[in-house]
Amino acid sequence: MVKARAASGRRARPKTAEPKRSPAKAGARSSAVVAAAPAIILVKPQLGENIGFAARAMANFGLTDLRLVAPRDGWPNDKAHAAAAGAAFVVDQATVYDSVESAIGELNFVLASTARPREMVKTVLGPESAAAELRHRGERAERTGVLFGPERSGLDNDTIALADAILTAPVSPGFASLSLPQAVLLFGYEWLKTESAAPPLGRATAFDGPATEGIAFPDTRPATRAELLALFNHLEAELDRCGFLYPAEKRPSMVRAIRNMFHRMGATEQDVRTWRGIVAALSGHRAGRGKKVS
Amino acid sequence: MVKARAASGRRARPKTAEPKRSPAKAGARSSAVVAAAPAIILVKPQLGENIGFAARAMANFGLTDLRLVAPRDGWPNDKAHAAAAGAAFVVDQATVYDSVESAIGELNFVLASTARPREMVKTVLGPESAAAELRHRGERAERTGVLFGPERSGLDNDTIALADAILTAPVSPGFASLSLPQAVLLFGYEWLKTESAAPPLGRATAFDGPATEGIAFPDTRPATRAELLALFNHLEAELDRCGFLYPAEKRPSMVRAIRNMFHRMGATEQDVRTWRGIVAALSGHRAGRGKKVS
């Protein structure tokens, strides 16, 4: 009996989030490792709307494995389906369980989301650290999941004790109440952010992929220095002509200030042509408007 | 006339998010710099509930300056007040404007939240970069704000042209639809995260502050190595006695595996006492249960 327990204990998972030292599983050794996305497990959810909103938040960030433990109003639930809107497919393929133990049975690493860490000795992770940990484990072919509790009471202590670590979001201590779908949203958002150093931003269309950070140049390109210098020469010649760059001892600093404005602007080739036209128009010349001037 | 336009142009703000080189204002020079929180500006919001939910999301992350431009159903709005729940104070002190220009008049730097960057040459920032930029500017005493558009259509291009840069959240390109309160929530979340390297996690109580990442040790402390070694000696002696650590050539690796399990566990002083009791109980001794053994 002692032997059996000890042998069983040898397979027990550590109760902290520190990385395992054991070798990666064979499945995680391929060169292009794609981490399995975490399961989102709603424990005794009360409102169908919140199940639907949580499904939407999941779909927003590429999560699809929704598991429900004893939903209060039974299953399927029309309100969940309606609230999910375009993410109804997540609701349709949700799986339902009688107990938390069966819902997380095949998972290797489980987080418990709580608004407040309970009186337990347990690792606490914010959403960013939690997503990084689950991404890391997923890349080693571990199956992971996050438990979310009923709207009113949150997860009970016995359920939290089934998890490896606690997930708690940073919030203003004075107003810390996050709704169930909001808590799912913040985790999903951080999960997507771990997908790459530059995650896709915003909506893709039939004509165009998602955006990335930085300046976008639709239908144009940044101006070359030669184009800018031609603009500067044009502008400064006109400003000299009308007496704006006066007195002479202030001319250098005024020219620098004007040139720096254009550099800060990050002008495009089209912008330079527009400014050539503006300068020409304001100074009474008509040359250069609407056609390329070099 | 030319001179007046040029002089006005000299005060124009750059249209990119790169940091200004101009000296910080006097107010930002104190040793403890607190960045003014950004204003959240809802442009022509349609549903009162969404105004209330946005106010809740703001309060969750310490944002309180809510500005409304021409809310569809007038103002005040009972539904907004009700939906805000505990964040009704944000709704109550919201300010209302006829135009976007008047709502952002005193701000120095303005972002426009869109689900999809339009056909404009404009810097695009994700919520994390946007929050960092606004924190950085706020610490230099700049006033900042984020524009959010009507639920159905989003911000129009003329309004986006009033902003310095675009804010777009990372989402799954296949299901990119974020609700208005969700978009506010993600920005607010990233804003709070920039407040410190270890932002407060979860709810504070009358007895206890918010949590931080890592293992919490309520009412106990991590075990000392001496306590753990005494446990190991106790356990291994019992395992030797019952023949578990057999054959002898495997004993060293079995002992290491068992000891490593306890180290991974991050055992507390209380945990060690519990295990001393378990070992004693399983091995038929009664000594050591419930009292300190060293």
Would you summarize the structure shown here?
Two copies of one chain form a homodimer. The first copy, chain A, is of the alpha/beta class and 294 residues long. Chain A has helices at residues 2-10, 48-60, 78-84, 88-92, 100-103, 127-139, 157-160, 180-193, 225-241, 251-265, 269-282, and strands at 39-43, 66-69, 95-97, 109-113, 123-125, 144-148, 165-167, 214-215.
What is the tally of helical segments of chain A? 11
Which percent bin holds the helix content of chain A?
25-40%
Q: In terms of structural class, how would the helical and strand content of chain A be classed?
A: alpha/beta
Model regions low in confidence, pLDDT < 50 over at least 5 residues of chain A: 1-31, 286-294
Largest interface, by Cβ-Cβ below 8 angstroms: which chains and how many residues each?
Answer: A-B, 84 and 85 residues
Radius of gyration of chain A (CA) equals 29 Å
What kind of sheet is the major sheet of chain A? 7 strands, parallel
Order of helices and strands of chain A: HEHEHHEHEEHEHEHEHHH
How are the strands of the largest sheet of chain A arranged? 3-2-1-6-4-7-5
State the separation between the terminal residues of chain A, measured CA to CA: 90 Å
Gross morphology of chain A:
elongated
Strand content range of chain A: 5-15%
